[in-house]
Design goal:
Layout: E1 2-7, E2 13-17, H1 22-31, E3 39-44, H2 48-60, E4 63-65, E5 69-74, E6 82-83, H3 85-88, H4 98-105, E7 107-111, H5 124-132, E8 136-140, E9 143-147, E10 155-157, H6 163-174, E11 179-183, H7 189-200, E12 204-206, E13 212-216, E14 225-227, H8 232-244, E15 248-252, H9 260-268, E16 272-276, E17 279-283, E18 293-294, H10 306-313, E19 319-323, H11 332-339, E20 343-347, E21 350-354, E22 363-365, H12 369-381, E23 385-389, H13 392-395, H14 401-407, E24 411-416
Parallel strand pairs: 2-15, 3-14, 6-7, 10-11, 18-19, 22-23
Antiparallel strand pairs: 1-23, 1-24, 3-5, 4-5, 7-9, 8-9, 11-13, 12-13, 15-17, 16-17, 19-21, 20-21
Helix pairs in contact: 1-2, 1-7, 4-6, 5-6, 6-7, 8-10, 8-12, 10-12, 11-12
Bound molecules: ligand EPZ.
The site of ligand EPZ has 24 residues, from α1, α5, α6 and α12.
């Protein structure tokens, strides 16, 4: 296994180019199952999770060309409708094949994802929606077995706003017979992106990006070419990297419109963030101000940025309260930050962060994707050397993070554990 070794104390200065969004690419890969000819996706990030879903689709018989950048996929030779436990347990987003398989291929056998480091993360709302659309859904030996000759449009209310739940059922409804209304639908930019791509494929979808999405099913969809949007969570992570090192960084191909809550909070903390030419300039303050943060479904502050802003608040001039409302166990980075001297107290859903003058480098362990990013951020500012182990978590969602940070002046390198 590999680790990251970081010498703290170096200001980040320069330009960095953002990669395509992992959470936009994954549902678009699954959408390749909705047609039987080649689709072309551009700006696909080179990530472990992308390689995982490519491997899953190939196991099912999908032909693929390329692993990142421009990727082509064709489901014409599909011969298996199964997403095995071995794949789903490594990446729960594999459940995104469920909706397209039932809608287009009339059947699916997908492993239940099981638990995850950050929470139970069930898929009950995905299954409730498919049943409402007339699918026969059974749970057997840890697998979901779903089938339908043809799904029927239905009115579905999500008890909780669910990103992949909305995506799965939007894809299922695109080929159903009749009208489907998704209420309390997720509004994330990645959901909007999937909606746009489905409309390009010929789907009849209205209201995507609002909490009521209306889909009128069609008989067939056609293959498309689509460019993946930039990754707003990678963008937020680099903004915090500039903020925590008093840096001066220009983000290239950053869509500030996808990250108003993040930019607002970081400006409240004293950062300057503004469009400049073909990019977005982010400047870290001399004194970081404490801010309270509450994670919420989009357009609220994203849970995927909670660990990162916590790293920044560890060095703020006062007390911050960070409330995690989306997942029930997403504070695992706290005990690792404490090893670096952070003063954080957890009370239920709240992390109370007392900002300090400095953190000290230490050996720490990554536990999940965004926690590992937050430990790298803390290491950039800490006095001395920080070693982040188990960085396979990081490689799931960040493309060449160490190389991009090195180019900005960070002292960071990979090494064998
Ligand atoms: C997506 O996960 C993202 N993953 C996550 O990003 C992100 O943290 C999450 O949305 C929230 O924004 C992808 O898009 C591939 P949810 P998803 O369904 O869809 C509960 C990252 O770091 N829920 O929106 O799995 C669930 O337990 C990853 O890139 C149910 O109870 O999340 C959670 O508490 C981590 N039943 C809440 O809803 C269901 O059927 C939100 O989950 C579905 C969800």
């Amino acid at each position: 296994m590999e680790k990251m070794i970081i010498q703290g104390g170096y200001r980040l200065v320069g330009e960095v180019s953002l990669s395509g969004a992992k959470n936009a690419a994954l549902p678009l890969f699954a959408a390749s199952l909705l047609v039987e000819d080649w689709i072309t996706l551009r700006n696909v990030p080179a990530l472990a999770d992308i390689r995982t879903i490519s491997r899953l689709l190939r196991m099912m018989g999908v032909k693929t060309e390329g692993e990142s950048g421009t990727v082509r996929l064709s489901a014409s030779g599909l011969h298996s409708f199964e997403a095995p436990y071995s794949m789903v347990k490594t990446m729960r987003a594999s459940v995104l094949v469920l909706g397209p398989l039932v809608a287009k291929w009339k059947q699916a056998r997908v492993s239940l994802p099981g638990g995850c480091a950050i929470g139970a993360r069930p898929i009950n709302l995905h299954l409730k929606g498919l049943e409402a659309m007339g699918a026969k859904v059974e749970l057997k030996h840890g697998y979901v077995e779903a089938s339908a000759d043809r799904l029927k449009g239905a009115e579905i209310y999500f008890d909780i706003s669910t990103v992949t739940g909305t995506e799965n059922l939007m894809m299922a409804a695109a080929l159903a017979d009749g009208r489907t209304v998704l209420k309390n639908a997720a509004r994330e930019p990645e959901v909007v992106e999937l909606g746009q791509a489905l409309k390009k494929m010929g789907a009849k979808i209205e209201g995507v990006g609002t909490d009521v999405v209306v889909i009128d099913g069609v008989e067939d969809l056609r293959p498309i070419e689509h460019t993946i949007i930039p990754d707003r969570i990678e963008a937020g992570t680099f903004m915090v990297a500039a903020g925590i090192t008093q840096g001066n960084v220009k983000l290239l191909n950053c869509n500030l419109g996808h990250m108003e809550a993040v930019a607002a909070k970081l400006k409240e903390a004293g950062m300057e963030i503004y469009p400049e030419g073909d990019g977005v300039k982010v400047i870290g303050p001399v004194n970081i101000k404490p801010v309270d943060v509450k994670t919420l479904p989009y357009p609220g502050f994203p849970t995927d940025m909670q660990a990162q802003i916590m790293a920044l608040m560890c060095l703020a001039g006062g007390l911050s309260v960070i409330t995690e409302t989306v997942f029930e166990n997403r504070f695992m980075h706290v005990s690792e930050m404490r090893r670096m001297g952070a003063d954080i107290r957890i009370e239920g859903k709240n992390a109370i962060v007392q900002g300090l003058a400095h953190l000290t480098g230490a050996p720490v362990m990554a536990t999940d994707l965004r926690a590992s990013a937050s430990l790298v951020l803390a290491g950039l500012a800490a006095e001395g050397t920080t070693e982040v182990s188990r960085i396979y978590h990081l490689d799931r969602g960040y493309e060449k993070l160490d190389q991009k940070l090195t180019k900005l002046g960070a002292k960071i390198r990979r090494a064998q554990e």
